[in-house]
Amino acid sequence: MNQQEVKPTIAFINTPTQLYSCENVSNAEKYSTIPPLGLGYVATAACEVVPKSNITFVDAEHLRLSPKKIIQTIIGSNPDYVAINATTPNWHIAKNIIIGIQKAINCRIIIGGSHSILASDSILKDSDINHLIFFICIGDGEPTIVNLLKDKDLSQIPNIKYIDKDNNIVQTNNEVTRQFKNMIIDRSFFLNDPLINGSKIESYVLSARGCPYKCSFCAAPVISQTFVQRESNSIKKELKELLSQGVNYIRFIDDLFLSSKKRLNELQQIWIELGLSETNFGFEATARTNIAHSYSDATWAILVDMGLIEIEIGIESGSQRILVLMSKRTNNKEVIKTVSMAISHGIKVKGFLMLGYPTETIKDLEKTYELARELKAIGGNSIRFSPVIVKAYPGTAIYDKYFHLVDSLYSDYLLDITKYFTQIFSEHEKNILKNRTRYNAVHTYKNNPVSLSEMTGGAKLDDVITYLAKIILISENQESGVELQKNAISV
Asked: β-strand 348-355 against 383-389: which pairing, if any?
């Protein structure tokens, strides 16, 4: 392609997490959304090849767009290419958007996101849609989009799968992006970054991709097959740009931010060079308890001085048996020590919990509940929990082992758990539970909601939901209202 030729146009779509109404967008449920950083990085890479004016970026989740509105937007820009991301829970939405776009305009559609990596063959074997897809991105999207827009032959574009003229599935070479380590994302693509929240001006930053651990319920090691940390100069430059825009609070959304003491030392040096401290800056980040429990008082003091407000940890279960099955490589003592040390230094804690793991019994659930109570006694209002019901997603070890036990990959059943306890909870408690369980999806068996635990001889779904509700109400300081009777549960 020479300079005299017209550069291609491309639209990026951040697919909505749920179906929004065409008519009632202004009345849609209010909750904050995270800027689609992954898609933003790919769009930024596209700017290396085509003018930014050739790029349309549609954050349909933030805008609460219905599929119809999304399709109308794409028709209006009439791009040569459409790159759409998808997760397993919202794949059915993305699929219908793709079908609608291809009916309306002539363009080439690319699918990216976690679902494209985890279920690429399933997508390409789907006769409803495979003929509408140009290719699927199954790795880092930056080198893929750059080579695509340079008009390379499909066989020369890395990290993709496609169907060739002989109807065979072809996979090209894998290439880990080199750009990410030193890349600064173009935040002008985002409509909700930075976000003003009272005195806080917040932004989201990704300082690493992937995770070096291989928990059995997690697909992160498959989605990003290598753990890649950005260079210090790149992080420093991005933070400096955000500070110039008035940002004073960062949410680091890495799968693992505090990965080692060496990494912490590198980050501390960045903070020193930028003049950041708890007096003028705040941030929250992820950590693992098998690392953080060994931090000394001096290390915690460094984190406090850097402005760490909240640390996010994967507790997952209070049962050591379940933790071993999860390949979690942690234990309760490490969790308790991490929480105790963080709280004693004035750092808040958010703990993630998973309930209904394969073979998990009521006894195991009780151990998780008791651990939550113990941690709440330590942390009080400075600790909160985010419990979910376990689902097996493609790319995870439990998917390979247990998915044959449930209906299908797309058997998501979104639970309103207040319907399970209509005779027990007050209206206040129901509202808490409803607000806290928006994304508690479960599998189905013969079209009825089930837990993986009950499908493997363990606790039934109503037991799992009971403990989910108890832990949520502990998190919200409402434990006194939880007196659940098994005979009062109506499914």
From this structure: parallel
* Cβ-proximal residues to 389 (8 Å cutoff; 6+ apart), any chain: 354, 355, 356, 415, 440, 441, 442, 451, 464, 465, 468
CA-wise closest residue to 291 among 254, 338, 251: 338
What single-letter amino acid sits at 105? I
Give the whole-angstrom CA distance, residue 230 versus residue 246. Answer: 23
CA-closest candidate to residue 417, choices 446, 388, 376, 457: 388
Residue of 59, 55, 57, 48 whose CA lies nearest to 14: 59
Note whether 473 and 429 are within 8 A (CB). yes
User: In the predicted model, is pLDDT for residue 487 greater than 70?
Assistant: no
As beta bridge partners, residue 351 has 313, 385
- Mean residue pLDDT of the chain comes to 90
Long-range contact set of residues 300-305: C-beta below 8 Å, sequence gap at least 24: 300/341, 300/342, 300/344, 300/345, 300/347, 301/345, 302/264, 302/268, 303/264, 303/345, 303/347, 304/278, 304/345, 304/346, 304/347, 305/277, 305/278
- Residue 160 clears pLDDT 80, i.e. is over it: yes
Fold observed for domain 10-171: Rossmann fold (3.40.50)
Query: Following DSSP, what letter does each residue of 450-462 receive, concatenated?
Result: E-TTGGGTS--HH
Task: Find out whether 207 and 252 touch, Cβ atoms under 8 Å.
Answer: yes
Sequence ranges of the domains in the chain: 10-171, 194-488
Least confident segment among 15-19, 40-44, 288-292? 15-19
Share of the chain above pLDDT 70, in %: 93
Segment 419-427 mean pLDDT: 74
Phi-psi region of 428 (alpha: psi -120 to 50; beta: other; left: phi over 0): alpha
Cβ 287 vs Cβ 263: under 8 Å: no
Residues 220-261 have pLDDT tens digits of 878 887 899 999 999 999 999 999 999 999 999 999 999 999
- Contact in structure between 367 and 375 (CB atoms under 8 Å): no
Q: At what angle do helices 461-475 and 427-436 cross, to 10 degrees?
A: 100
Sheet holding 169-171, edge to edge: 55-59, 10-14, 81-85, 108-112, 133-137, 160-163, 169-171
* Class at the top of the CATH hierarchy for domain 194-488: alpha beta
Mind giving me the DSSP string for 257-291?
A: SB--HHHHHHHHHHHHHHT--TTT-EEEEEE-HHH
Taken in order 378, 421, 32, 181, is the CA torsion positive or negative? positive
Q: Which residues contact 287 (CB under 8 A, 6 or more apart)?
A: 256, 257, 258, 311, 312, 313, 338
